[in-house]
């Protein structure tokens, strides 16, 4: 495994401050420093009262960190709508007072740079910025734009876009790796998130993190940059792993995998990837930098066709939740770590309660039991194959009856119409397993079966792990069932993934501690 040193890159973590008063702004600068910012971006246009001569002196002289001074006009998405001359005079004054950086919009940059000879050597560096509404422009168009921005004489360039698809971000990565001048480039929003997180890998000079009181829509928090993603540890050699899913923001994968990578000194980063189109995704992210993936809803079955090889267990199940890019030939190999994870989680919970089926000779406490599965998607398939392998008899419910029938056939079980689930009378000691997203954050109050039938199950498992104790589990516990949280499955499938991603042995106890502390 590669080693991870402290502070491997020179990327600065910047906190944007949109405070409304000068007093607050000064407080916020100190707060940002306390929380670990390297630099702050001050949005003067957010101040409700601002007298440049007086206030800039206060701000600049009391700064505890290097500052980037921005005075964004309405015509470029900011709040300032006074006259241009006063706005630009204020920026020049900030420079003269000692601000480390001032930000000029591309539209005005040529003239101001020329008039004030700003491109020349000075303690204050000029950032020329541009906001492009969509990254629909081609790689070439974006390169031309960057060349134009560079020709202003800027010391640094800032290009912000809104991404409509994760594949557009590859253009940002291309720019970051090829730009001649220091570049800040990223896309905002959920689909743009990885352009921000992976900036340090591709040579971005700055990554933005927002803080309480100054939360900015579309930006990750400073705490997540530091604690979850460890952006200071990311460098050009860092291997990228990601969760391909839609939705993806509920996943706790990043707060489990990233600290674990760091704990064992593995140079990897794990990021959420909101993917809309699998085919486009795999055709764009071909490089060895993207080394492996977790696969979440709704892609566990569909992703199989993009794997060059599929492990026999995953093939039999018909669902892949882990992909590793083989470093020798770049081929994508699909695995399933959900199956063992979910079944051993249920078995261990039963064993812990001393429930070994009354017959010590039986290989599993699930042997001979009825296993009622709700949801015949990827996770459901893994559960039912696991249950079958332990000698349980599987009964499948899914809103798509044909899908339920296909799965039932594959595990020699039975499928019943979804409408029958509410009043379904299970056999004695039956296990209920929810493998649908019902009850998942933010729709926490829903349960897949009726409360009345819950008391008929002796064990209830929920593959949903956000929240840790779903409404289904709370109700089942109240009804007297043994409950097994999806968190246990999540932990175990992640252990399996870590082993496949790194080729090493996962530090299971460490991972369990994270899960206990943070989930
Ligand atoms: O089902 C899950 C959960 C998951 O999708 C997540 O939410 O992090 C990650 C997958 O690897 C796993 O199989």
From TrEMBL:
Pfam family, one: SDH_C
Gene Ontology terms: biological process: chorismate biosynthetic process; shikimate metabolic process
All residue ranges annotated as the Shikimate dehydrogenase substrate binding N-terminal domain in the record: 243-323
Single GO molecular function: 3-dehydroquinate dehydratase activity
UniProt cross-references to Gene3D superfamilies, sorted A to Z: Aldolase class I, Leucine Dehydrogenase, chain A, domain 1, NAD(P)-binding Rossmann-like Domain
SDH C-terminal domain: residues covered: 486-516
Alphabetized InterPro entries for the sequence: Aldolase_TIM, Aminoacid_DH-like_N_sf, DHquinase_I, NAD(P)-bd_dom_sf, SDH_C, Shikimate_DH-bd_N, Shikimate_DH_fam
HAMAP family linked to this entry: Shikimate_DH_AroE (MF_00222)
Name of the protein in its database record: Uncharacterized protein
């Amino acid at each position: 495994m590669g080693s991870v040193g402290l502070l491997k890159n020179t990327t600065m973590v910047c906190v944007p401050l949109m405070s409304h008063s000068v007093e607050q702004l000064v407080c916020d600068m100190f707060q940002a420093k306390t929380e670990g910012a390297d630099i702050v971006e001050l949005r003067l246009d957010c101040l409700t009262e601002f007298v440049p001569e007086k206030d800039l002196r206060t701000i600049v002289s009391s700064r505890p960190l290097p500052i980037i001074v921005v005075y964004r006009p309405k015509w470029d998405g900011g709040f300032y709508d006074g006259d241009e001359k006063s706005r630009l005079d204020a920026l020049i004054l900030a420079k003269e007072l000692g601000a480390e950086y001032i930000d000029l919009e591309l539209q005005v940059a040529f003239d101001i740079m020329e008039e004030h000879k700003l491109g020349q050597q000075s303690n204050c560096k000029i950032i020329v910025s541009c906001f492009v509404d969509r990254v629909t422009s081609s790689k070439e168009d974006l390169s031309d734009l960057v060349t134009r921005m560079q020709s202003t004489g800027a010391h640094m360039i800032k290009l912000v876009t809104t991404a409509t698809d994760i594949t557009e971000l590859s253009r940002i990565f291309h720019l970051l790796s090829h730009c001649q001048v220091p570049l800040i480039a990223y896309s905002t929003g959920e689909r743009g998130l990885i352009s921000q997180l992976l900036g340090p890998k591709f040579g971005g000079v700055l990554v933005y993190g927002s803080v309480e009181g100054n939360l900015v829509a579309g930006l990750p928090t400073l705490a997540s940059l530091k604690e979850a993603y460890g952006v200071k540890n990311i460098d050009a050699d860092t291997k990228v792993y990601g969760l391909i899913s839609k939705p993806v923001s509920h996943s706790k994968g990043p707060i489990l995998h990233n600290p674990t990578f760091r704990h064992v000194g593995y140079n990897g980063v794990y990021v959420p990837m909101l993917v809309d189109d699998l085919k486009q995704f795999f055709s764009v992210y071909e490089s060895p930098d993207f080394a492996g993936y977790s696969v979440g809803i709704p892609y566990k079955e569909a992703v199989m066709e993009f794997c060059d090889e599929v492990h026999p267990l995953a093939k039999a199940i018909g669902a892949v939740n882990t992909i590793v890019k083989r470093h020798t030939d770049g081929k994508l190999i699909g695995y399933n770590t959900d199956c063992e994870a979910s079944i051993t989680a249920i078995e261990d919970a039963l064993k812990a309660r001393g429930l070994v089926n009354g017959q010590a000779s039986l290989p599993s406490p699930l042997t001979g039991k009825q296993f009622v599965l709700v949801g015949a998607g990827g996770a459901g398939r893994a559960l039912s194959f696991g249950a079958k392998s332990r000698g349980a008899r599987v009964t499948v419910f899914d809103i798509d009856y044909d899908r339920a029938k296909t799965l039932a056939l594959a595990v020699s079980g039975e499928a019943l119409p979804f409408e029958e689930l509410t009043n379904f009378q299970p056999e004695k000691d039956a296990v209920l397993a929810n493998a649908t997203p019902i009850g998942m954050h933010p729709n926490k109050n829903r349960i897949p079966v009726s409360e009345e039938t819950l008391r008929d199950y002796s064990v209830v498992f929920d593959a949903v792990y956000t929240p840790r104790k779903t409404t289904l589990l709370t109700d089942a516990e109240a009804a007297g069932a043994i409950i097994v949280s999806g968190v246990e499955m999540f932990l175990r499938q992640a252990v399996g993934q870590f082993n496949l991603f790194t080729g090493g042995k996962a530090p299971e106890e460490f991972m369990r501690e994270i899960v206990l502390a943070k989930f």
